[in-house]
Design a protein that fits this description.
241 residues; Gyrase A, domain 2; 4-stranded antiparallel sheet; two-stranded parallel ribbon; 7 helices; binds flavin-adenine dinucleotide
Length: 241
Amino acid sequence: MKILKNAGGFEVLTPFKNLKRQLLDIEKAGRTCYQSEKKEITEGSAKKFVQMLMKRGHYSVLEHSNMTVKFKNISRGFTHEQVRHRLTAISQESTRYVDYAKKGKGPDLMKFQLKCVVPPHRNEGENVELENGRKLSLKEMFTEIEDFYRALRKAGWAPEDARQILPIGIKAEIVISANFREWRHIFKMRTSKFAHWEIRKVMGDLLVKTQRLIPGVFDDFVQTGVDQNGLRYFAPLPHNP
Ligand SMILES: Cc1cc2nc3c(=O)[nH]c(=O)nc-3n(C[C@H](O)[C@H](O)[C@H](O)COP(=O)(O)OP(=O)(O)OC[C@H]3O[C@@H](n4cnc5c(N)ncnc54)[C@H](O)[C@@H]3O)c2cc1C
């Protein structure tokens, strides 16, 4: 069993060049409305054009785009929140087809060991007392779950049956594709101070990265504070939905 603490991250699978080019595509599409496509379109003009569209509330033009992101070392709780966003394409690690009792070979030896995400602001080694007087830490509990899962597998239970015991903190991976408008919505919901700490941390990092990669589209999001654990939260400036 391996504890994952502050390990959540992402990889933007859409090539950076492609993301920048999409900004120009948005300008081309948007200028069709005004019949002004003949204007010379550059990265600088695209950024300004997109900012103008957003000020006027023409968010639909942002839908001529796509960004694919792979999230890694996050929990099943995170992916369960993420999949609620319906305007996305989703591929996620299956707890039916992955056997967490399987031993890999060579460099993959520990690939299928149980990995669990814990709150970074809590001590997973801290003992708590159960109602029967037994003292146990979160780390020990996860180890017992792993042992039990392995025992079920040894007894002939299929991974899809044994998975019923897996915790919501189990490590997961998910690939999400969405257009820029939907990413804006995801950032708004998942980087706000009301979002869960895990998804808020990773989405906050992704937001900052996309602000650099795709100028104009996410610029209006600003950090509005930090919570009691020092974790930042964000919101778009008032004129934007
Ligand atoms: C802090 C927080 C707490 C939450 N707590 C709970 C909870 O306790 N229980 C729970 O069940 N969920 C909870 N959720 C999930 C939440 O209710 C939404 O399911 C999730 O955030 C997806 O939002 P969405 O439907 O706006 O977005 P998406 O599915 O990403 O859709 C984007 C937008 O498209 C439009 N849209 C999409 N589908 C339709 C449609 N069929 N009809 C009309 N318009 C549509 C809407 O404008 C929508 O906002 C929580 C979310 C957050 C951020």
